[in-house]
């Protein structure tokens, strides 16, 4: 851990921020450089479709560390700089910035935390004014400006987390909101059809129109502004604002052109090391070997970025780093907050067990509380995932239950009187 070493982190999200913090906390005393393409210090994105979009969170609250923190910890954050080439064997990067032009930067160890970008609509009309995507603070600021006017026709294309959160924000500003979903239900790919229906019911109760089984093939404009989303059937859905929430694409190009192994993301072992000895990857861009699943897993979630970034920071410091977190995700929509942990998703063979009041349909009673826990069970009776809805402080025990690999009885799992600690095999 000699102090003449230099570690470089490429990225400007939570994985980068966590890595730098953990490298310093692990005792690394050498030079730390962060190359971040966006014009600000690394920041967190969840508020971009929640608190920041609805106007309750300030931009200054998005960064885990402010510029003073980086200065105090002797970290050189080069904002607005882009890494354009990597030579893993030669331990060099090519970095471009408007001020300094192109320069070569040597490193001893490198972290690629380049994250992902919003998938863009590329059909006719994509360039019209009023068409949005949501990934960066700049995107969220633009969208907020458009939504805040109120009384506009907002069309959200895509029924994923970001689309639904933005739909809730758009309603909050008093807009007419239509969500266009290609599949049978929103969130179907993430949490399955029953829970997807529950989220649809939630939005419908708040006045959002959710149209299912439709796809947008074009946008029609009027004087350069979007006027309608055109469906595959030719039908037009009038729109003043269109947000595409159609997924994210991992930023693997730098790794690919450097000859690193890349599959769905940058392939790493369980210690986040890529196919090059001194190059690590973390966060949304990393496809990490998961010993539990015995396959690589790429996770596009905040907690994963934080935890894998922290583990990679230890590796940058020259300390051993292992990464084995259970994937975790949260969302807030209207008055519903939920956390999800695990590997269940929509797996066709997973069985759902509900403890409490979480309807698996859109048509729940108007007074349904939507308060409880849903568990995903593998065929052999092990809990592989759990989602707590408007119930708090239970996620750690849900994670322990998943990790324990214990076979549990469905009746006990569904019974709120049976403590989860007992099912997880915790001893007091
Ligand atoms: C609107 C929104 C809401 C979200 N809400 C939630 C949520 O509620 N819960 C949840 O769990 N997750 C949520 N997520 C996902 C979560 O934000 C991501 O998992 C997290 O941002 C990943 O962090 P990261 O550091 O890996 O990458 P990113 O945050 O994508 O950051 C990567 C950074 O690297 C920079 N970069 C890329 N290439 C280069 C290069 N060549 N040179 C220099 N810099 C480069 C990019 O500009 C970017 O700043 C949300 C994401 C979005 C967009």
What's this entry about, in short?
This protein has three domains: 180 residues, FAD/NAD(P)-binding domain; 127 residues, FAD/NAD(P)-binding domain; 90 residues, 2-Layer Sandwich (Enolase-like, domain 1), CATH 3.30.390.30.
SSE layout:
Layout: E1 6-10, H1 14-25, E2 31-36, H2 51-54, H3 67-72, E3 75-79, E4 82-87, E5 92-97, E6 101-106, E7 109-112, E8 116-118, E9 131-132, H4 137-147, E10 153-157, H5 161-172, E11 176-180, H6 188-191, H7 193-205, E12 209-211, E13 216-222, E14 225-231, E15 236-238, E16 241-244, E17 248-250, H8 253-257, E18 266-268, E19 279-281, E20 286-290, E21 295-297, H9 302-316, E22 328-333, E23 336-342, E24 351-357, E25 371-377, E26 383-389, H10 395-404, H11 410-414, H12 420-424
Parallel strand pairs: 1-2, 1-7, 2-3, 7-19, 9-16, 10-11, 10-16, 11-12, 18-20
Antiparallel strand pairs: 4-5, 5-6, 8-17, 13-14, 14-15, 20-21, 22-23, 23-26, 24-25, 25-26
Helix pairs in contact: 1-9
CATH architecture of the largest domain: 3-Layer(bba) Sandwich
Distance between the termini: 40 Å
Output the number of helix runs: 12
Small molecules bound in the structure, each named once: flavin-adenine dinucleotide
Count of separate structural domains: 3
The CATH homologous superfamily of the largest domain: FAD/NAD(P)-binding domain
